Amino acid sequence: xxxxxxxxxxxxxxxxxxxxxxxxxxxxxxxxxxxxxxxxxxxxxxxxxxxxxxxxxxxxxxxxxxxxxxxxxxxxxxxxxxxxxxxxxxxxxxxxxxxxxxxxxxxxxxxxxxxxxxxxxxxxxxxxxxxxxxxxxxxxxxx
Length: 143
Fold this sequence. Notes:
Alpha-D-Glucose-1,6-Bisphosphate, Chain A, domain 4; seven-stranded antiparallel sheet; 3 helices
């Protein structure tokens, strides 16, 4: 499992404004190239956005759906990049002083491509660190 953190000088609602905006995921998730469509029920449980993900030579069209949402504190997603893998991503937003600490945990739950995991964990950690820095820039830039 990969666990990353970033401090953002914003309120929890400011962070969740970006997390709720499915069309913005390609702006901050490293490797996401485009959001092609968003389910009408977004950001509700089981609603999804449909994306194209590209990492190196790998290019995949799939979707990410909400498993749990407790705005503005917690969001649990199922990110799919099938047939390569499926991951659960937990984003928590915790108030810290005048800002927040955003934690992103990602765990691969299926996919033979992503085994053995010992080489995957550092790659996920790097990608998620970049993604959280991008999220910070977006949130703080919109204040």
